[in-house]
Design a protein that fits this description.
This protein is mainly beta and 57 residues long. The chain has one helix at 3-6; strands spanning 11-12, 16-19, 49-52, 55-56. GO terms for molecular function: nucleic acid binding.
Length: 57
């Protein structure tokens, strides 16, 4: 058995990154133009991201 031939039998999936503290640099919000805008910030402590790889054979 050589892995040169066996790699063709493995089906790879892509990687997925889950951001735990919001989107990466792209943020927007909606507000009613008829009302005064309320400005507040919520930023969880810690945050970070989780990267998951998977393969199926």
């Amino acid at each position: 058995m050589t892995w040169n031939n066996e790699w063709h039998k493995v089906v790879w999936s892509d990687e997925k990154k889950f951001n735990l503290d919001g989107p990466d640099g792209f943020s927007y919000y909606w507000h009613d133009l008829r009302k005064e805008e309320d400005i507040f910030s919520t930023r969880p402590l810690g945050g970070g991201s989780v990267m998951i790889w998977a393969s199926f054979g």
